[in-house]
Automatic annotation (TrEMBL):
Domain Zinc finger Sec23/Sec24-type, residue spans: 188-222
Membrane topology: Peripheral membrane protein
Positions of the Sec23/Sec24 helical domain: 619-715
Protein's UniProt keywords contain Repeat: no
GO cellular component term, pick one: COPII vesicle coat
Lineage of the species this protein comes from: Eukaryota, Viridiplantae, Streptophyta, Embryophyta, Tracheophyta
Record-level GO BP terms: COPII-coated vesicle cargo loading; intracellular protein transport
Alphabetical keyword list: Cytoplasm, Cytoplasmic vesicle, Endoplasmic reticulum, ER-Golgi transport, Membrane, Metal-binding, Protein transport, Transport, Zinc
Name of the protein: Protein transport protein SEC23
């Protein structure tokens, strides 16, 4: 399962500690090719006054509407423990030993850093690269698939590995970059000692074409590829000029390979629909299903299965008549019954352009549940239905018994539309929790569901479970099925708008398969923890590379909407000027081309603590802290403990990196990390750790989504983004404080999986004006979340309504602070008249929850000044 932890053995290290002396280099000035200077983005929908200055050293991508979110946080770590992986990580193959080569002079790095000063034939004379202490930003700006928590690394182990302030990266293996990576249609050059890839930072001998590995410093041949008269010629090779490159093998040697032109239509989508819904839910579901099939590309192959006490497999060859074959739901389908079904006269997978009328007929023919049985007590054979869907996708395959799986292009997808728990047949649990054997049956169901998910993953099929309605679906039983297959489980209030959008986005999101990520680090940097949608990878790299100490992770799917949180630390004091991180990502893309994506990062090392702190990327660090924290919060009591841990982290960061106030025992939180405390405050009181959500199943689903989510969605799930509507259709970005609840305004609050639109009472009383503001807010909400998966629910309500509590509970109660603190942290207040401020103050209801400033004072820490 994707959030399991596996402890590395004591003393485990992935970093590589070379024993061979580093080749000496003559030094000369290093002129670097730097990216263009950062300029804050603007967007026409936002008032010019709302654009905030960039976060220091920002490497972060823009949101879809062109506005850069500014909500910082540094990286923290739970108290130090053994390295863990949310899904297992392969331990190192063994201690590193460099090959016994004699140190040789090194020519230069192919990185676009130093123009040649003279020609060298590479035989007796060499070009040398100067590795200055200047900041290296090439890889940070050009490799957005890797977002680092800091742009520099401290040389002192004791300071670098402070438990309350960790170091790491968010790796988004499947993220599509605007300009795309450099494409190379050939096999990569790899170090024969450790398996690392040649890259723009390698030192290269011009005459012989040999290159020195940045990870283990081994000297390797290049089969003549890197022989060149000048450095400029080498820069024509993409892997020596760019930090991220894709090596593509288009000739696919797998059995069952399908040509590119046909591959997309070969990956089917099978809908598995709950047949036990009451009429209101069924009507919403039917509307969403009709809209869904109308939105599909015409070549998409589709199948429809429904389940209650029996499994109904719908025949798509019957014109416009809904016709189904029935299979028992109390047992798994036998191979014989599946063969009879598939070899029969029916068609169960068909391109949508050929079967659209009959699919609509099938959806229209669904009928509400007609027995007087409570929702939770109805017989639902979801497990058997998913097995049948898998059988339809696989088709008649005698090879399966021999362990050979046919691989159509792309990942097939099963989408389950569920309104209740699996209570009948394989993988089921009793209707009632009071059943005397419930714990044992639940444990058995968990194992069975996980096994079915793994079988689906082997067959290159992902299972998404979209739940809706008021009936509890027993989330702990269903999660293993989605996780193990590389899919997702999402809860919805109903089968309406948000459900329909997620149905469409689930089916169309691009997903690579057969993914493997290898992480290699230099100079005593070691991977201590990985969190994300993966598990232990069993590779045989040690047979090809005798000292391959990489951390290897099998990715359950390769999607743009996912990321891995990689925590790192140092095993000793660093003596070099730079450290190197390399991420090798191997996967098959949508068209079954084999991709090897190589991302190499170089970070300067520093002695100065303030220089290190100043290089921290608040938002990336914030997400890393939150993921490490949420990994421990598996239950409600765990969440309470984690909130306490966050308090202790604030104290520890302050005591280690803050400054003591004159004539006082109080410490000021470090100014370099000024955004951290407020975002951690949002984390501890929000839906991920707080008590905002009503049921533990909801928090569990949010936690799973968050642990696997991309950087953008993760950040929004931690810290909401507050936007106030202004005249002319523009929006002003404000701190997410309750002081934004001004009666004459409309406010949009984006909290990742939920977007709220709040209309003040004065504005709502003006019918025409409020309608225009509401339309503008809804348009903005849709723009902000256009590419987001899961798609959030979008709720709109008026001030004082019962639903407004969703909005209020997510805002920091800053109305409790004295006026000078309010103005410092919420400057927009200064634009209000005395009468407006008095009216705003009188609108708040007093309750006991502390404001941010009160919380900090309670920790005996002085909050950093608002920036």
């Amino acid at each position: 399962m994707a959030d399991q932890q596996v402890n590395f053995p004591p003393g485990f290290a992935v970093g590589i500690n070379p024993s061979t002396p580093e080749p000496t280099q003559s030094r000369r000035p290093d002129t670097k090719l730097s990216p263009p200077p950062f300029t804050p983005p603007t967007a026409p929908r936002f008032a010019p006054s709302t654009v905030q200055p960039p976060v220091k050293g920002s490497q972060l991508p823009l949101s879809s509407n062109g506005v850069r979110t500014v909500s910082p946080l540094p990286h923290l770590s739970t108290p130090p423990g053994p390295p863990v992986f949310s899904s297992p990580v392969q331990p190192a193959a063994g201690p590193f030993r460099t090959s016994p080569v004699t140190p040789q002079p090194v020519a230069f790095s192919a990185a676009p850093a130093t123009p040649p000063t003279g020609y060298s034939d590479g035989t007796n004379e060499y070009q040398h690269q100067v590795q200055s202490n200047a900041e290296d930003v090439v890889s940070l700006s050009d490799a957005p698939n890797v977002l680092l928590s800091a742009r520099k690394v401290l040389k002192q182990k004791k300071l670098m590995n402070v438990p309350s302030l960790g170091f790491g990266a968010l790796v988004c293996p499947g993220r599509e970059v605007l300009q795309g990576p450099q494409i190379i249609q050939q096999d990569p050059q790899r170090c024969q000692n450790c398996g690392a890839y040649a890259n723009l930072y390698c030192n290269i001998l011009l005459g012989s074409g040999q290159w020195q590995c940045v990870i283990c410093r081994n000297l390797n041949g290049s089969e003549g590829r890197y022989i060149a008269p000048t450095k400029e010629d080498l820069l024509n090779l993409p892997e020596l000029a760019f930090p991220m490159v894709d090596f593509v093998q288009t000739g696919n040697r797998r059995p069952g390979f399908i040509p590119v032109s046909d591959s997309r239509m070969s990956a089917p989508v099978v809908l598995v629909v709950d047949d036990c819904l009451d009429e209101p839910h069924l009507q919403h579901l039917q509307s969403s299903l009709h809209a869904f099939v109308d939105s599909l590309p015409p070549t998409t192959r589709i199948g429809v299965v429904s389940y209650g006490k029996m499994v109904s497999v719908y025949d798509l060859s019957e014109g416009s008549i809904a016709s189904a074959d029935l299979l028992p739901g109390n047992v798994s389908p036998s191979q014989e019954s599946l063969k009879q079904l598939i070899y029969g006269a029916g068609i169960y997978l068909s391109p949508i352009h050929a079967s659209l009328p009959v699919v609509h007929s099938i959806f229209s023919s669904l009928r509400p549940y007609n027995s007087n049985v409570p929702e939770a007590s109805r017989d639902r054979c979801m497990g058997a239905a998913v097995e049948v869907a898998l059988g339809i996708i696989q088709g008649p395959s005698a090879e399966m018994s021999q362990g050979v799986v046919k691989k159509p292009g792309g990942s097939s997808r099963i989408i389950v539309c569920a309104g209740g728990p699996n209570t009948y047949g394989p993988g089921s649990v009793p209707h009632s929790f009071s059943h005397p054997n419930y714990p044992h049956m639940e444990k058995t169901a968990l194992k069975w569901m996980e096994h079915l998910g793994r079988e689906a993953h082997k067959r290159n099929t992902q299972i998404d479970i979209l739940c809706a309605g008021t009936c509890p679906v027993r989330v702990p039983v269903l999660q293993p099925l989605a996780k193990a297959s590389g899919g997702i489980l999402i809860l919805h209030d109903d089968f309406g708008e948000a459900f329909g959008v997620n149905l469409q986005r689930a089916s169309t999101r691009a997903a690579g398969s057969h993914g493997l990520m290898e992480i290699r680090c230099s100079d005593d940097v070691t991977v201590s923890q990985v969190i994300g949608p993966g598990e232990e990878a069993h590779t045989d790299n040690h047979e090809a590379f005798k000292n391959d100490n990489s951390v290897s992770i099998q990715m359950l799917s390769v999607e743009e909407t996912q990321s891995f949180a990689v925590s790192m630390e140092t095993r000793g004091n660093i003596k070099t000027d730079f450290v190197y991180l390399q991420f090798g990502i191997l996967f098959s893309n949508l068209y079954q081309a084999d991709i090897t994506r190589v991302i190499t990062v170089r970070l300067p090392t520093v002695d100065s603590v303030s220089a290190y702190l100043d290089s921290v990327h608040d938002e990336v660090a914030a997400v890393l802290i939150a993921k490490r924290s949420l990994l421990r919060a598996k239950t409600g009591p765990d969440a309470i403990d984690v909130r306490t841990t966050i308090d202790e982290r604030i104290k520890d960061i302050t005591s280690r990196f803050g400054s003591q106030m004159p004539n006082s025992k109080l410490y000021q939180f470090p100014k370099e990390l000024s955004h951290i405390p407020e975002i951690l405050f949002h984390l501890r009181r929000g839906p991920l750790l707080g008590s905002i959500v009503g049921h533990e199943d909801e928090r569990s689903v949010l936690r799973d989504i968050f642990l696997n989510a991309s950087f953008d969605l993760s950040l929004r799930m931690v810290a909401p983004r507050c936007l106030m509507h202004r005249e002319g259709g523009t929006f002003e970005e404000l701190p997410a404080h309750d002081l934004a609840m001004q009666s004459d305004a409309a406010v949009v609050l984006d909290h990742g999986t939920d977007v709220f639109i709040w209309l003040g009472a004065e504005l709502a009383a003006q019918e025409g004006k409020s309608a225009a503001a509401l339309a503008a807010c809804r348009t903005l909400a849709e723009e902000l979340t256009e590419m987001r998966f899961p798609a959030p629910r979008i709720l709109a309500f008026k001030e004082g309504s019962s639903q407004a509590r969703y909005f209020v509970s997510r805002l920091i109660p800053a109305h409790k602070d004295p006026p000078y603190e309010q103005e410092a942290r919420f400057p927009q207040l200064r634009t209000l008249s005395a009468e407006q401020r008095a009216k705003l103050k009188s609108s708040f209801i007093h309750f006991d929850e502390p404001s941010f400033c009160e919380w900090m004072r309670g920790l005996k820490v002085l909050a950093p000044e608002a920036s």
